[in-house]
Amino acid sequence: MTNSFPPETATRRVRAALMHKVCGDEEMFALGASIARVVEMASSDDQGTHDLAYYVVSDPALTQRILRLSNTIQYRPVASTPVTTISRAISLLGFDNVKTTALAMLLVDALASSEHAASVRVELEASLCASLVGREMARHSFFQGAEEAAICALFKNVAPLLVASHEHDRYREISALVAGGKHTVGQASQMILGCSYDALSQAVLGEWKIPDLIVRAQAALPPGGVRVAANRGEWMRQVASFGLDVARLLGRTHEPANSLEAQALLARYGEALDLDRERMLDLMSSVQEGMRGLLESMNMQPTPKSEPKDEGSGLPNVLLLATLDAGEEEQEGSHPSGKPKNARDLLLAGVQDVTLLRASGQGKVNDVVLAVLETLYSALGFRFATVCLKDAKSGQYRARVALGEDSARLQAGFAFPLAPHRDLFHLAMENDADLMISDAGSPKIRDLLPEWHRKLLPDAKSFIVLPLVVGKVQLGLFYADRSATAEEGVPPDETALIKALKGQVLAALAP
Predict the structure, then answer these.
(1) Which end of the chain has the least Cβ crowding within 10 Å, N or C?
(2) Beta strands in 405-499 (DSSP E)
(3) Residue 136: left if φ>0, alpha if ψ -120 to 50, beta else—which one?
(4) Binning pLDDT at 50, 70 and 90, where does residue 6 land?
(5) How far apart are CA 475 and CA 186, in angstroms?
(6) Cβ contacts of 16 within 8 Å, gap of 6 or more
(7) Would you call 405 helix, strand, or coil by DSSP?
(8) Do 130 and 239 contact (CB within 8 A), yes or no?
(9) Neighbouring C-alpha atoms within 13 Å toward the C-beta of 243
(10) In angstroms, rounded to a whole number, what is the distance separating the alpha carbons of residues 243 and 150?
(11) Does residue 45 sit in helix, strand or coil?
(12) C-alpha distances in angstroms, 24 versus 29, 32, 34, 161, 171?
């Protein structure tokens, strides 16, 4: 009989080519760097929460999807106000949930392939579903730091994702071997790639500098019944494997309860993970509900289980989520300046969001400041927004956080002396006057703009300045601008809401 499998030299070339793409391809390098950055964010301190919130709001598409997820029925009570800021989304969903969701969405964006969309979609759904299984298992675990199980499970399927999107012919060969019923996934991937999917996942995550605990959790489990884990690392490994197995089952059927596969999963993992039939079915039900909300948040409609997966069907515009949200806000349109026509409604939602954040007792000063900045930036359609605070050590007011176009460069340059000067920014703080400048090009306004502002933001055509003054102490200001004039102005009701937002920050800053 002729051997239909590729020779060892060929499998080595496939494995080497794929690893070269992961290590050398610019997009894959950027994905790995982004994933490593999010994974490193710690959940044990306020700085970790602030870093995660800042990371999310710096990506408009990611922001929209996290907010959509936090407004699904599963997370937001029907009677509560809509969630409009990432700070409140983190408070509502939980740090680890938002962190894992952000990682999942990075995979969705980076690995979506129009050429092999159907295969990639299958693997993406399996990854997302596995992460939800990990999250559910973590909720009932006594291990400290069990929440990382969701991340371990998410990455358990990273190798099939990469092969489906970058070496699709090899992916089809592996799938064909598995479908023949004579080879496991591990055996088939070893034959075609020269290493198993699990080993490839470990290699990729190692290249991305992911923590060892997560990398080790990708290792394959021995066949047969799984024993109770002796430590957290072993438990993570079991959950990652179980999560992907459950995801594969749910990917094939909406009714897993009485299937032979479900019985096999229970026999394999039941003792180790403290599962009986009722608990496992409850878990699957929760995961299915969670998947509906997660897919909805990404504008990914669930794939019908009976529908053939046509290779030309394509992912449903995953990369265009930032512009294809069909909500009421986008339908109402914007002014020529870019300011949304329903700015009042967006500002009101932001005020409610920030008020709830402070009332919950969980909103630190940084969280409140970021939530207000985020609301101003999105509700009023600015292209750049920052909060500038006093830095006595350097003798300057310096931008501490910024959103929008080229925000890193602009934040670094947005600084001016503490010493009083007759320019627009010092005058605004000295008089505690909120300024809404509709045309920055008018001669009288230009005369009051300092040289540093004209050089840093030469194309700022309209902007606002909101001084932060507690008592008579000038602490800094909010600044946000557009590259177009704002002839529509700011009506009284919007002005009142802007002042209410600023008032929340002042209350948080007050001693």
Answers:
(1) N
(2) 415-417, 435-437, 462-470, 473-482
(3) alpha
(4) very low
(5) 60
(6) none
(7) coil
(8) no
(9) 33
(10) 9
(11) coil
(12) 7, 11, 15, 17, 21
Question: Residue 476's beta-bridge partner residues?
Answer: 389, 468
* Separation CA 494–CA 269 (nearest Å): 57
CA dist., res. 485 & res. 462, Å (int): 5
Is the separation of the CB atoms in 129 and 213 below 8 Å?
A: no
User: Mind listing the pLDDT tens digit for each residue in 140-182?
Assistant: 888 887 888 999 999 999 999 888 888 888 888 888 878 777 7
β-bridge partners, 417: 396
Check if the beta carbon of residue 261 is closer than 8 Å to that of residue 249: yes
Q: Is residue 435 within 8 Å of 448, Cβ to Cβ? A: no
Model confidence pTM above 0.70: no
pLDDT, tens digit (0-9, with 9 covering 90-100), for 264-287:
999 999 999 999 989 988 999 888
Question: CA-to-CA distance for 227 and 7, rounded, in angstroms?
Answer: 36
- Segments in 405-491 forming alpha helices (H): 407-413, 424-430, 443-448, 451-456
Tell me the average pLDDT across 485-504.
86
Contact 198, 221 (CB under 8 A): no
Rounded Cα–Cα distance for residues 238 and 224 (Å): 12
Can you tell me the distance from the alpha carbon of 355 to that of 124, in angstroms, rounded to the nearest whole number? 37
Q: How far apart are CA 409 and CA 229, in angstroms?
A: 49
pLDDT tens digits, 443-473: 889 999 999 999 999 999 999 999 999 888 9
In 305-434, where do the E strands start and end? Answer: 384-391, 396-404, 415-417
C-alpha angle 127-131-135 in degrees, rounded to nearest 5: 170
